[in-house]
């Protein structure tokens, strides 16, 4: 049986030096491991000290510039001047909690709501996607009276206690709790040509098990591009049947848009919109503030009202004037720079380049995705049933030598996860394809 790879181990510095043995050194890596201890997570076998960023590029302390194809946090580009200006100007005027009226906050929320279906009338802002998903779970439990959740096998939804329970890819040992059932990701390898029916059938089986166990079904939670599972975006609309199944079982559908949201898929602003879905709750995160800690949920008012009758919700730092100004600037940049259309255009060019490489190198067994969110499967012998996390790890580190940063995904770490900033240029697509071609030649 192939080893399952926890998400944080897929592209990490292995920390061979014992944390207890780092005190004698005072270099930056030693200080990091000493200060963070066992919770330290760093990318690459040889970690990089980064000092600046602009657009799709980051610059290391040694002067090397890297094309960032990993990070969906600075979605409109590293240190975008309009976002930085909005953030700094508001911070120089006023920054306070959300218990005071502020014009910018309401302008931002109105603009954000305009991107959602009308029935998702309420927005609750948080500081992280983990907080947003944690709140979504609690609202679902209150609304349904159930406590069971359905996720996919390599899902990642955050790191609070409740959200870690529904994040199989975060587990290094042990099993999911009884109130959580993980089902296979919607891959053709698993379900054949009828992905919609096969995936919905697994959701139905999971719902029956949760009911038998006495938990009932609170929700199916999924990010609509299944990023941690290895990026499964198509066929468009395949998720509708699964959502109908969970609704019939009495549960809600929570669309986790922390990764596929904010125009990344190109042909829709939200990932769930590609599937013409009707989510009950939508969670948002990372790209919302382009690096500023912003997240939140969009939710049906009746669901939020019932929850607030019991406990309510308040977040000291979310919905502050600075957060609102930052989030509004991100929406303005996406609109004014036409970044959704750019994601579609550059994503098409990127997939064409990857498919050309697949024709040349049989170790590329599949290319999937939408817009600027793409997964590329690798197998040493060209057999998709024989995935290789080791090959992906080797390619990732070779790409680093060719000045490109990229991540991994999938149950076995067999998928290159591609998600550059939305401001990607055609010349940068070419740079990436050339770097990948060089890396494939190196890793024979």
TrEMBL record:
InterPro entries: Aminotrans_3, Aminotrans_3_PPA_site, PyrdxlP-dep_Trfase, PyrdxlP-dep_Trfase_major, PyrdxlP-dep_Trfase_small. GO terms for molecular function: transaminase activity. The keyword Transferase applies. Its cofactor is pyridoxal 5'-phosphate. SUPFAM superfamilies: PLP-dependent transferases. Keywords: Aminotransferase, Pyridoxal phosphate, Transferase. The keyword Cell division does not apply. Belongs to the class-III pyridoxal-phosphate-dependent aminotransferase family. This is Aspartate aminotransferase family protein. It comes from Thalassospira indica.
């Amino acid at each position: 049986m192939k080893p399952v790879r926890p998400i944080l181990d897929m592209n990490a510095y292995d920390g061979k030096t014992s944390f207890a043995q780092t005190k004698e050194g005072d270099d930056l890596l030693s200080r990091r491991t000493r200060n963070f201890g066992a919770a330290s997570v760093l990318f690459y076998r040889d970690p990089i000290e980064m000092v600046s960023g602009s657009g799709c590029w980051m610059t290391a302390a040694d002067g090397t510039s890297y094309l960032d194809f990993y990070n969906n946090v600075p979605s409109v580009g590293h240190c975008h001047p309009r976002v930085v200006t909005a953030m700094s100007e508001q911070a120089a005027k006023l920054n306070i909690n959300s218990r005071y009226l502020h014009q910018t906050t309401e302008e931002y929320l109105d603009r954000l709501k305009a991107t959602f279906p009308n029935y998702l009338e309420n927005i609750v802002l948080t500081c992280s996607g983990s907080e947003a998903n944690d709140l979504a779970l609690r609202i679902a439990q209150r609304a349904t009276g159930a406590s069971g959740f359905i996720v996919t096998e390599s899902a990642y939804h955050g790191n609070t206690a409740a959200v870690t329970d529904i994040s199989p890819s975060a587990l290094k040992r042990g099993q999911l709790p009884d109130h959580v059932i993980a089902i296979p990701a919607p891959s053709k390898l698993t379900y054949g040509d009828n992905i919609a029916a096969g995936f919905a059938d697994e959701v139905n089986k999971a719902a029956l098990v949760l009911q038998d166990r006495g938990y009932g079904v609170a929700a199916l939670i999924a990010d609509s591009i299944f990023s941690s599972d290895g990026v499964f975006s198509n066929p468009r609309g395949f998720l509708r049947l699964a959502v109908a199944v969970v609704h019939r079982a009495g549960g809600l559908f929570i669309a986790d848009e922390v990764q596929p949201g904010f125009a990344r898929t190109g042909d829709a602003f939200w990932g769930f919109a590609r599937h013409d879905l009707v989510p009950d709750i939508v969670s948002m995160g990372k790209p919302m503030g382009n690096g500023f800690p912003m997240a939140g949920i969009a939710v049906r008012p009746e669901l939020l009202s019932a929850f607030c009758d019991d406990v309510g919700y308040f977040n000291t730092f979310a919905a502050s004037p600075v957060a609102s100004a930052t989030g509004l600037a991100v929406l303005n940049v996406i609109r004014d720079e036409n970044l959704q259309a750019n994601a579609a255009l550059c994503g098409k060019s990127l997939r064409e380049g990857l498919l050309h490489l697949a024709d040349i190198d049989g170790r590329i067994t599949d290319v999937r995705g939408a817009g600027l969110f793409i997964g590329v499967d690798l197998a040493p012998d060209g057999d998709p049933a024989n995935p290789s996390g080791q090959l992906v790890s080797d390619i990732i580190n070779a790409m680093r030598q060719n000045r490109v940063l990229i991540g991994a995904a999938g149950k076995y770490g067999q998928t290159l996860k591609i998600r550059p900033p939305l401001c990607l240029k055609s010349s940068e697509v070419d740079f990436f394809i050339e770097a990948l071609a060089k890396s494939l030649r190196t890793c024979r």
